[in-house]
Design brief:
Layout (H helix, E strand, L loop, with lengths): L11 H4 L5 H25 L7 H21 L3 H33 L12 H23 L5 H31 L13 H28 L9 H21 L15 H4 L10 H6 L2 H9 L2 H15 L5 H6 L3 H12 L1
Helix pairs in contact: 2-3, 2-8, 3-4, 4-5, 4-6, 4-7, 5-6, 6-7, 7-8
């Protein structure tokens, strides 16, 4: 612990209080156990690739709390910024898993979508807004540690948090529509898993909203406000919310309610970002492999055109969102896993 000549802890200039070191150990242990639990779940269930984001986000939290411990002992702007980024990413990755889950339901149902937002690009649309919000929050959090720019940093953080909570609310409305609509349904092992899937999605999204309300209130009151100067508020309304989100995802593991990797017959068509690539598992399972192969051979033009389209998409220039993501190695890894899934 470093002290100023007046006896003040140097770390309090960054955090607003002197961080409790034992609580950082607790955070590392909790998220480390969640990481091991998710790895075991995914390995045993042969779940879809995008669920690897769950152990990844737990690992990000372990690294974040390790950096929090180091920053409490040897505080510096670089450590504080790195810690803020790692701890910030976790909530966004959990939200991405929820987006991808609803996208899986939409595609597996094979229903014709009535609205642009409720389609195969479902996860991508919400994730792009999440990236914008995360960049604003990350930049704002880093600037707030500088006494000369705390007001600007606070405004950026509040703006990012407001965009994110608005995105989550819109996501809940869209998810509710998919949940209640009879057009979006499929069966896994003879059972309709929609109720269990959406229970996890609703609970975890509401917990993320509570965390964002805390973030907005803390930034609005400033670094010297009642919320920001009491460490217990951070652990109750931030850390605990994320632990509960991951705990619900671990206990009510959504991989058990989605078709496994070996149950997807046409993986190439499944990955398309168009309505032509939607798969109705019920119809595919009722057809034998000969009929399936014959139907694809009868339309070679469509196959070639789709392959040409995928090749052209692969060579396309990266979008502005992709350029923002590529700034950090961690966000690049998350984006690549999400895109492959």
């Amino acid at each position: 612990m470093q002290l100023l000549p007046n006896g003040q802890d140097v770390a309090s200039l960054y955090f607003g209080y002197s961080p409790n070191l034992p609580l950082t150990y607790v955070g590392m242990v909790l998220f480390g156990l969640l990481f091991l639990g998710f790895c075991t779940r995914i390995f045993l269930s042969h779940s879809r690739l995008f669920l690897l984001l769950l152990p990844l986000t737990s690992l990000l939290q372990v690294v974040g709390y390790a950096l929090r411990y180091e920053c409490a002992i040897n505080p510096s702007m670089g450590l504080f910024t790195a810690m803020s980024i790692f701890l910030l990413l976790c909530a966004n990755v959990i939200a991405l898993v929820n987006y991808k889950t609803v996208r899986e339901i939409i595609i597996y149902s094979g229903a014709e979508t009535r609205y642009i937002v409720i389609g195969p690009r479902f996860a991508k649309i919400f994730f792009e807004f999440n990236i914008i919000a995360s960049v604003l929050q990350g930049v704002g959090g880093g600037i707030q540690s500088d006494p000369d720019n705390r007001a600007v940093g606070s405004h950026l953080t509040i703006a990012g948090s407001c965009i994110q909570i608005a995105t989550l609310i819109c996501f809940l409305i869209a998810a509710r529509y998919v949940h209640r609509s009879d057009d979006y349904h499929f069966h896994v092992h003879g059972k309709d898993p929609k109720r269990k899937l959406f229970t996890v999605i609703y609970i975890t999204t509401l917990l993320l909203c509570i965390r964002l309300v805390y973030r907005i209130a803390s930034s609005a009151m400033g670094i010297k406000g009642v919320i920001a100067t009491h460490e217990w508020t951070y652990y109750v309304f931030d850390t605990l919310m994320l632990v509960l989100c991951l705990f619900f995802h671990l206990v009510f593991f959504i991989g058990n309610y989605l078709p496994h990797v070996n149950e997807v017959i046409d993986e190439e068509n499944y990955g398309k970002e168009g309505l032509e690539g939607q798969i109705d598992l019920k119809n595919i399972n009722n057809n034998d492999s000969a009929q399936y192969q014959q139907s694809h051979q009868s339309a070679p033009y469509n196959v070639n055109s789709s392959n040409n389209q995928q090749t052209s998409n692969g060579n396309a220039e990266p979008s502005t969102i992709e350029r923002l993501i590529s700034v950090l190695p961690v966000t690049r890894v998350i984006y690549r896993i999400a895109k492959k899934a």
